[in-house]
Amino acid sequence: MTNHITTQWKGNMAFETNNTSGLNFTIDASPEDGGEGNGMRPKALMLSALAGCSGLDVAMMFRKMKLEVRDFRIETIAELTEEHPKYYDKVTVEYHFFGKDLAEAKLQRAVDLSVEKYCGVMEMFRKFAEVKINTIFHNE
């Protein structure tokens, strides 16, 4: 399968890009980097893609395993290298589950399956970064 994305310059430091979903969004630099700050930052988008990819896997497994979860959040914390080109060399992905009587073993299994088997973005990150995974259960 091939993906084709078109990214169009909109002036100054702003670009509009499409997605295979048919939706568009803006990429822009921060004001301190010469942009207007009216869009997403490219490197941060990579972290959103990582969390989104794995989050979709885990949410799909909620349904299949019939797991009760009141809320689910992924925190992605990444460190950039000091020298150019700067890239993420250390990434921590924290899966936070909220609810009563959480099925912790099954939820951990869902995270493990995403991390180890299904999430292609996670596999891409492993090619250039040390990736740590933490699962945190917030039983209410």
Automatic annotation (TrEMBL):
Coiled coil: none annotated. It comes from the Bacteria. InterPro entries: KH_dom-like_a/b, OsmC/Ohr_fam, OsmC/Ohrsf. This is Putative redox protein. It comes from Zeaxanthinibacter enoshimensis.
